[in-house]
Amino acid sequence: MPQKLAFRMKLTPGFEEEYERRHSEIWPELVTLLKDTGVIDYQIFLDRETSTLFAFQEIEGNSNSQDLGSTEIVKRWWAYMADIMETNPDNSPISVELPNVFNLH
Hints:
alpha+beta; 3 helices
């Protein structure tokens, strides 16, 4: 059974469309890396009022996108996105994992 992971991130206000544009042109090699790592579903939702992003992943295996920060492609993606998001000193997005508090099966 896949594990589920949810987290939130924050955009710089005014860059919502740019964020969507960049993700509509996501690099194929990044998609391949995510899939090869076991990420079988990755969705990002935007609250336009607060510029808050909500991300959800389903993962098969023991890795997820949060574990890929040492790869060159992820480092390049972080640098590419750093000008429009709240980031850590290494350009990784500041992300807060969200606990699951309800499931309807």
